[in-house]
Amino acid sequence: MTGDILRLLMLVLQLGFVALLYLALMRFAGSLLKDLRNAERAQLASRSGIGSLSVIDSPGDEPPAGSTISLGPINSIGRNVNNTIYVEDDFVSTNHAMLTFRGHSWFVEDQGSTNGTYINGHRIDRPVALSFGDELTIGRVRMRLDR
Amino acid sequence: MRIAWRGVEFRLLLPILLLVPLGFVVTHIALSGTVEAGPLEIAIGYVAILVAAHLLLVAAGHRGDQLLLPAVGAMGAVGMIMLNRLPQELAGTSALGIELGMAATQLLWFAIGIAAMLAIAIGVRDDGVLRHYKYSWAAIGIGLLAATLLIGYEVNGARLWIDLGPVSVQPGEFLKIVLVVFIAAYLAETRTLLTSARMRIGFLSVPPLPYFLPMLALFAVVMLIVVRLNDLGTALLFFGTFLTMLFVATGRRSYVLIGLILFLGGSFVAYQLFGHVQARIDVWLDPFADPLGAGFQPVRAIYALGRGGVFGEGLGQGLITLGGSLTIPFVHTDFIFTAVAEELGLLGAFALLGFAAVVVFRGLRIAALARDDFSGLLAVGLTASLGLQALIIIAGNTKLVPLTGITLPFVSYGGSSILASFIMVGLLLSISHRSATGADERES
């Protein structure tokens, strides 16, 4: 008699355990689905573009440090106000560098500037491909290429 | 630092917190045949560790992924229940005059692992240290392997262990992380060169060698040593992770194709040259040829899977020991999946696979949302490593591929494995925290 009760109790507990295991899994599935839907909506809301520059350091405060510049496929950088990205710094040339998106990558090319263009601390002498996360230094202005 | 309520994580953790004590009670009743709860210290300890991890992440204002901790917590929960149910004298430590059984030792390693995970998730604020010192990391990795080769000792024909006083560590587990960091840093730097430059040999386009050579050289050294150490599972894992990262970085199918051809060629050569490789393959093809010798372990594992069936024998009711000895040797490490499948059946095994799939899914999502190439590739590598490791050992358990002795992450018994796996989750959390806070800055 007690054996039967024990067996019944065991069955209930075992089923309860598996049910709890699957309840946990169902909750995960729910969270994943919700997250996917949100991501889809967020993507529709902001077609985020091909990349952006985050300004790390900017002594002249134009562009202001901490700001983010969203990029088009072709961007000119320099001290001339007609540049796509206008930089206020004495060490920056009038037309300093070009930042372009070709194929699947970003490229930067120095436009014969006086003080040069630096990628992760190395001066460039030809068009160079950039990775996201690379640091671009123009004059005293440091910027990071982000997605 | 603001507090960040991690509501999703809390909601997901709740059923798991109930799962562990319930599993402990069920196994105790089944094993003792009496209706009483039995000792619950270890279950409560496990629950406390997960709750503490959750609260610390909340207090630190961590904005990283909220599904990872519950998912690995669930895998760990199933593992703890199984390890607590197995004979405790299978493994354990006796340090500082305290004797700890297998489950208690595992709990201790969980505490250490979660602490490491939190330290990395909260402490690593930028990836500079990982990224810029990539050659130092590579050197550390080689050093680890060389140390194993020189002062390591063998267990079951594979020299994987280094004795460090009270604990033995498996350097391979940590080498895995170091290698992923190195490859991610290297690929992030040379990715554009590897994709844009073209060299063709016949119909295959091969990577331009000058950019590729340092990585290939490192990889050859690692593979050589791993094969010297007779650690085939780890070699397979490294190779799979490497190919995945290479494919994600370059998007070139031809690289994967070359890799697979190399792998097939390498496997064939290894089969011809090394006796232990040959033995493994032969056992895999026909374990019943020598059911009491070489095929003992796989044959017993197949029977255990069969006993489990769809619904399982029930927790605590599987045939783990027979006449005082284990029915499957190494059931607590290599064959933990078989033990789960025997007691919880196909249902339980699927649930475990489901939790592992959640980890992989979230890892890849973290990679997709990462702000820079290095973080993205690092996340891909860590995820691939965790996922492939689970895949290789589960496939080995079920005789889908030849068995190789590696652990099932978060489930198998083993300090090095638990600690390394949690370090990887910590890195993933830190990457996802950075992309979450970065997105905010951009909006404001």
Notable features of this structure?
heterodimer, A: 147 residues, alpha+beta, 1 helix, 11 strands, B: 444 residues, two-stranded antiparallel ribbon, 15 helices, 9 strands
Verbal overview:
The complex is a heterodimer of chains A (147) and B (444). With 147 residues, chain A is α+β, with helices and mostly antiparallel strands. Chain A has one helix and eleven strands; from the N terminus they run H-E-E-E-E-E-E-E-E-E-E-E. Chain A starts with a helix and ends with a strand. The mean pLDDT of chain A is 85. Chain B has one domain. Chain B is built from 15 helices and nine strands. In chain B, strand 4 and strand 5 form a beta hairpin. Chain B is globular and about 70 Å long. The two termini of chain B are 17 Å apart. In chain B, 50% of the residues are buried. Chains A and B meet through helix 1 of A and helix 1, helix 3, helix 7, helix 13 and helix 14 of B.
Major protein interface: A-B, 34 and 50 residues
What class, by secondary structure content of chain A? alpha+beta
The tally of domains of chain B stands at 1
Strand order of the largest sheet of chain A: 2-1-11-10-7-8
Taking the sheet with the most strands of chain A, its summary is: 6 strands, antiparallel
- Basic shape of chain A: rod-shaped
Unreliable segments of 5+ consecutive residues of chain A: none
Q: Rg of chain B from C-alpha positions? A: 22 Å
First-to-last CA distance of chain A: 69 Å
